[in-house]
Amino acid sequence: MQEEASRLSAANHIVYPPTGQVVNTEKPPIGRVRRHMTPDPITVEEDTPIESAAQRMVEAGIHRLIVVDEGGRPVGIVSSTDILAVVAYHDRLTPQHG
After folding, report:
1. pLDDT tens-place string over residues 10-19
2. 27-82 tens-digit pLDDT
3. Cβ distance 45 to 68 under 8 Å?
4. CATH 3.10.580.10 domain range(s) in the chain
5. Edge-to-edge strands of the sheet including 64-68?
6. Quick one: which of 36, 40, 33, 32 has its CA closest to 66?
7. How many whole angstroms separate alpha carbon 24 and alpha carbon 79?
8. Rg (CA), the chain
């Protein structure tokens, strides 16, 4: 991976570390956002169970879902990292009885 990043950097490309996204510095993206956006994003409603949201992400091969209200208006984004945090800290988030 490091070797690949060095090769790409040498060829006028940089790797954006947090995401691993490769950016061509000689030909930066141009135009309007609409040319690069996802025109029909996958959405979930606010009351969608976490398990269902995770399944939709896996099936679609994506890491983020737009959360919409009852009227279909966007109210937020849930990411695979958000879902992973729920799984990892489930015992801390669940009220303890006893």
Report:
1. 566 666 666 6
2. 766 788 887 788 899 999 999 999 999 999 999 999 999 999 999 999 999 999 99
3. yes
4. 38-98
5. 43-45, 64-68, 74-79
6. 40
7. 26
8. 19
| pLDDT score recorded for residue 11 | 61
Look at 5-14, 39-48, 85-94 and tell me which has the smallest mean pLDDT: 5-14
Whether residue 12 contacts residue 25, with contact meaning beta carbons closer than 8 Å, is answered with yes
For 29, the token pair is 């993206």
The CATH number of the domain covering residues in 38-98: 3.10.580.10
Q: What is the dihedral of CA 42, 40, 32, 20, to 10 degrees?
A: 40
The dihedral over CA atoms of 48, 59, 64, 13, expressed in degrees to the nearest 10, equals 180
Residue where the block lists tokens 């790409």: 8
- Cα(52)–Cα(44) distance, integer angstroms: 9
Rounded to whole angstroms, the Cα distance separating 5 from 27 reads 18
